[in-house]
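Dear support,

I submitted the protein below through the web form. The confirmation email said the job was done, but the results page showed an empty box. After a refresh the structure appeared. I'm attaching both so you can tell me whether what I see now is the final result or a partial one.
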Amino acid sequence: MYAGVRSYLLMTVGLFIYAFGWVVFIIPNEIAGGGVIGVAAIITYATGFPTEYSYLIINAGLVAAGMLVLGRGFGVKTLYGIGMAAALFHFLPAFISPSFIEQAVIPGNNLLNALIGGTASGLGIGMVFMQGGSTGGTDIVAIVWSKFNNISPGRVFIFCDLVIIGSILLLPGRSFEHVIYGYVEMVSFSYVIDLVISGNKQSVQIMVFSQHYEWIADRLVSDLQRGVTVIDSMGWYTKRAGKVIVVVARKNEANSIFRIVKETDPQAFISVANVMGVFGKGFEQIKTGKISWKKNAPEAEPH
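What the results page shows now:
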C-alpha cells in the first residue's frame, strides 16, 4: 500500500517538473518540441483532421500497445500520467503569474531557455519512467523499444523527435530557428532522461588486496548477497603469493563494501574502477529482441 502511494506521489512530482519546464521555458518562447502532439499537428496541416482527435487516437493506440507488451500496471500508470500531465498543462499557467515567467525566462536567449526547459522536462519524465509510468506518446515507444533492445530510452527519443521536430517546418508560422532550438531542447531532454534512469544502474569493479581475504569474502557474501571471485596473485616486490578479491556491484553499494573491508582489515588495499556495463544474474539482461537459441544449441562437451 505504502509503496503504491509513494510511486504515484513521485510520479506526480515528476509530472509537475515536466509541465513546469514546458509552461515556463518552452511554450512562452515558442520553442519547437517533439512528441505525439507534433505528429497530430502535421496530420491536421496535411488533411484538416482535428488535432485533438489525432492526438487521442495515436495515444490510444500506443497505450494499448504498451499494455499488451508491458502489462496492465504500465497502462494504468500511463493513463494517470496522461491525465495528470493534461491537468497540469491546463491549470499550472493559472497558478504561475506572468511576472514570474518573465523573471524566469531569459529574454532573447532561447538557447538557454531550451536547455533549461529540456533539462527540467527530462528530469520530470525520468522520474516518471523510474516509477514505471509515462505520459503517453513517444514515451511508450521509447520504453517498449528499450525493453527488447540494448538502446536507452533517451536515444529512442532523439530518433523520434529528430523527425517530428524537423517536420514542424511544414506547419504555418514556424521557422528554421524554432527547429534549431527544438533540437537543443531535445538533446538536453534526452540526455537528462538517460542520466536519471541509468544513475541507479551504474556499476563498479572493486579489487581488494588483503591477507584476510577469506573473512572479507564471507562477509561480502553474507551481508550484501554479492558474488565474490578470489584469484591468485603475487606481490612482485615481496615475491609473496596472495589472493585478490574481485567484486562487481552497483555503484551505490560501494560504500557498504568499503565499510566491510575496513572493519575486517584496516590495512587492506582497495582498487575501484567504473565498468561500462554488467550483464547477468543480479544485473542487466542482454536484450536482443530475438527468440533464444538455447533450446536448439548443442550441449557443451565435458572438460
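Response: this is the final, complete result; the empty box was a page-load delay. Residues 205 and 283 are 13 Å apart (CA to CA).
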